[in-house]
Specification:
The structure holds two protein chains of two kinds.
Chain A lengths: L6 H9 L19 H13 L3 H14 L4 H14 L14 H19 L6 E2 L11 E6 L4 E8 L2 E9 L2 E2 L16 E4 L15 E3 L5 H5 L8 E3 L11 E3 L3 E2 L2 H7 L9 E5 L4 E2 L1 H23 L3 H5 L2 E7 L2 E2 H12 L5 E12 L6 E12 L3 E13 L2 E8 L5
Parallel strand pairs in A: 2-11, 5-9, 8-10, 13-18
Antiparallel strand pairs in A: 1-12, 2-3, 3-4, 6-11, 7-8, 13-14, 15-16, 16-17, 17-18
Chain B lengths: L1 H20 L5 H12 L3 H14 L4 H13 L3 H14 L4 H23 L18 H6 L1 H12 L5 H23 L2 H23 L18 H13 L3 H6 L12 H13 L4 E14 L2 E12 L2 E14 L2 E10 L1
Antiparallel strand pairs in B: 1-2, 2-3, 3-4
Helix pairs in contact in B: 1-8, 2-3, 3-4, 4-5, 5-6
């Protein structure tokens, strides 16, 4: 202990963690006794130059979560600072390629506590989540965060958030093996209880590639939400092959809400948090377009009906031309049509400009044919008017 | 007369022998513990050492031996805490600091190994001891024996001081417990406000006498007495011995020591700890003459694992145009 404390260097080291903590901005959506909360309090004590307190807190933390690698690293730094030998984040191990990943994790977890999810705002994607779903999940890849929304008192509200890791090469998956996480609106496609321990205890496949991915020519498979290896509390922000990875403890706590075929997972680069007024006005404009489409279809005036379809429209092998030909042919035999819909959901697709995915139960009746189906449409705002660019059934796996 | 000095001499010898070999004054048990440890009865030995340190928290040898044994048994947290306790009593004993540094380095290494999942090959952790059974062991580590013996011999550490130090450690533990139980927002607010609060208190208390601040003296002093005390505390905190000593008037007479001995002692006490932080809280200025002043304040002295609060009265005088300390007292 004869050496000077080198405290300044310690803080320089942690400044690499881009010190953004401001105590009055703490938003305590996460349990105060969670490992993450303890980590943040440890870092907080370092910031306040209370190394004794920081050490005591890191003691508590690693006793609770010995497999939390970032916590161990921070503890190593605190202990080494006591001897005056710490000169940067991760001290003598700073050249280890994994140190950068852990620093990014520290950054991401700290940023969560510095800024926190906005109060009373919700992601612009959630125009009208499916009303019969327990929860909707929203991933913000830049924040390394997964937000859980639930219906409370008839409104979708934030009900917890969790640290997540994503693909090594980031987002916007296009091809098999590109180590990216897809951007879009996905549905939980199942549950796998017996996974390789590398993926934790349980995994939930997403329906990647969905109908929009197929349309855009994206491919690949095996995008899951899963946990961490059983001996690893959490992984740095960009370490998966494209999956969304949560600490096992976090996944365990939210998985009771997961419903195959119902739980929507919005994966975005950066969540756009907006007020309920904006949600309502965008949702209403989509609903008006949908009503108008439904009425024009029931009118059996094919031109009015077709005016809702974009030049870019495609459905499976059909483009606008073949769609039009078929609709005109079918219309000739109709004397009356009734169209109803229920269980509507509307979500804005991340990574796209003003593209909404609209699902509903369609009840179609006419003089010569009636059917009920679950329909999925993609609507895009073109020159101020919502137009249909895709129509079909939801691809659920 | 002669018999008195012989008695004194034999007492001194006993003390020296005791501190070198761990014998004498209750040290039979310390010796016994070490004997046990050597014979492999480490847990029992540890129990005895624990009893010894519980009975007398200023028993540095027992603390150090306890830490060594804990480290050997793999309880690095325990070893660290034992050394911290010993350092509370004597922050300036090099062997304790060195051992704490070893423990911290080892724990840091283990933490990094866990962080990166790459266990490295660890050589056994050996703490510096002065408990070596063989004479060559003692010879090897004579320097440390000296420092420890010196520490014990010069332990002008009064019981009151020890208990104050122990209280401060207990306070720290309590504070940690309190902060641990608070939610993060609260904890950080408390932590964040703790340091600036002492600073901001200063101008508030001083404000009743603003007219007296600065430039009163006919001799054209550039500082005022409160600033002089703060500069002295800063030199102490910076471990800047020269600036610290220069804060004292030439005729400052330390109690019981020559000026030269005192300067040596201060140099040692200030340079030895890895860090020191001295805060001057709520200073109140009393002027007793055109060139005399007293500053009464609460002093918060902190170093590794120690936080000491005391009430101090500093007497100052003007010397060559600067306020210098001519008297330093603890007020009860």
């Amino acid at each position: 202990m004869r050496r000077p404390f080198k405290r300044a260097m310690f803080f320089t080291g942690l400044c690499c963690v881009s010190w953004v903590l401001a105590s009055d901005h703490h938003t305590g959506a996460t349990a105060p006794d969670s490992a993450e909360s303890l980590l943040v309090r440890t870092l907080d004590a370092i910031r306040a130059e209370r190394l004794d307190l920081a050490l005591a807190r890191s003691d508590t933390l690693v006793r609770r979560q010995p497999d939390f690698r970032l916590a161990q690293l921070v503890r190593g730094d605190i202990l080494l600072a006591q001897t005056g030998k710490l000169d940067r984040f991760a001290g003598p191990r700073s050249t280890d390629p994994r140190a950068g990943g852990l620093r990014d994790e520290a950054r991401a977890r700290l940023r969560r506590y510095a800024q926190g999810p906005p109060q009373d705002l919700i992601p612009r994607n959630l125009l009208l989540p499916p009303s019969d779903a327990e929860a909707v999940l929203v991933v913000d890849s830049r924040a390394s965060r997964l937000y859980v929304f639930r219906q409370l008192d008839g409104e979708w509200k934030l009900d917890g958030d969790h640290y997540v890791s994503i693909g090594r090469n980031g987002t916007d998956k296009q091809t098999e093996g590109d180590q990216r996480t897809p951007l879009g609106v996905y549905t939980l496609a199942g549950r796998i209880d017996h996974v390789d321990p590398y993926y934790g205890k349980v995994a939930f496949p997403l329906n990647y590639p969905n109908e929009w991915d197929v349309r855009e020519g994206r491919h690949g498979h095996g995008i899951w939400i899963h946990g961490t290896p059983l001996s690893t509390y959490s992984r740095p922000p960009r370490t998966s092959n494209g999956c969304v990875v949560l600490p096992n403890e976090d996944l365990q706590s939210i998985q009771p809400l997961f419903q195959t075929g119902k739980t929507e997972v919005v994966v975005s680069d950066s969540v756009n948090w907006v007020g309920r007024d904006e949600i309502d006005s965008v949702r209403e404009s989509v609903e008006r377009a949908l009503d108008s489409w439904k009425e024009d279809w029931a009118s059996n005036e094919v031109d009015r009906y077709l005016s809702h379809y974009s030049e870019e429209f495609r459905s499976g092998d059909q483009d606008l031309q073949s769609w039009e030909t078929e609709k005109r042919r079918v219309a000739q035999a109709k004397t009356w049509i009734k169209v109803g819909y229920s269980h509507l959901s509307i979500m804005m697709v991340p990574g796209e400009k003003n593209l909404a995915v609209v699902d509903f139960d369609q009840d179609y009746r006419s003089n010569n044919l009636s059917n009920q189906m679950r329909k999925r449409q993609y609507w895009r705002l073109e020159d101020g008017t919502w137009k249909i660019v895709f129509e079909g059934t939801p691809k659920l796996s | 007369m002669k018999s008195v000095s012989i008695a004194w001499l034999s007492m001194a010898m006993v003390f020296l022998v005791a501190s070198a070999y761990g014998a004498g004054g209750g040290s039979a048990t310390l010796q016994g513990a070490l004997e046990m440890a050597r014979n492999g009865r480490k847990t029992e030995a540890l129990d005895i050492l624990r009893r010894l340190t519980a009975e007398d928290s200023s028993n540095l040898e027992a603390w150090n031996d306890q830490a060594a044994l804990q480290a050997e048994l793999g309880d690095l947290d325990g070893a660290r805490i034992s050394l911290e306790h010993a350092l509370v009593a004597r922050p300036d004993v090099a062997v304790l600091s060195r051992n704490l540094e070893k423990i911290c380095s080892r724990q840091a290494r283990l933490a990094y190994d866990s962080a990166f999942g790459t266990p490295s090959r660890l050589e056994p952790l050996l703490l510096d001891l002065r408990t070596a059974p063989s004479t060559e062991g003692i010879a090897d580590r004579s320097g440390e024996n000296d420092s420890l013996r010196l520490a014990l011999a010069s332990a002008g550490l009064q019981a009151r001081e020890v208990s104050a130090l122990r209280d401060s450690l207990a306070d720290r533990d309590k504070e940690i417990a309190r902060l641990e139980s608070a939610p993060p927002g609260v904890a950080s607010a408390v932590v964040a406000s703790a340091a600036p609060a002492t600073r901001s208190a200063v101008p508030a208390v001083r404000s009743p006498i603003p007219a007296r601040r600065g430039g009163i003296s006919a001799e054209g002093t550039r500082s005022d007495p409160v600033q002089a005390v703060e500069a002295w505390a800063k030199a102490w905190s910076d471990r800047d011995v020269e600036a610290y000593l220069a804060s004292y008037a030439a005729d400052y007479h330390p109690v019981g020591l020559s000026r030269r001995e005192w300067e040596e002692q201060r140099r040692d006490r200030i340079r030895t700890p890895a860090w020191i932080k001295v805060d001057v809280v709520s200073p109140v200025l009393h002027r007793s003459g055109p060139d005399r002043a007293e500053v009464v304040y609460r002093q918060v002295y902190q170093t590794q694992g120690v936080r000491l609060t005391s009430r101090k009265r500093i007497g100052l005088t003007i010397f060559q145009g600067e306020w210098k300390i001519e008297e330093e007292k603890e007020v009860r």
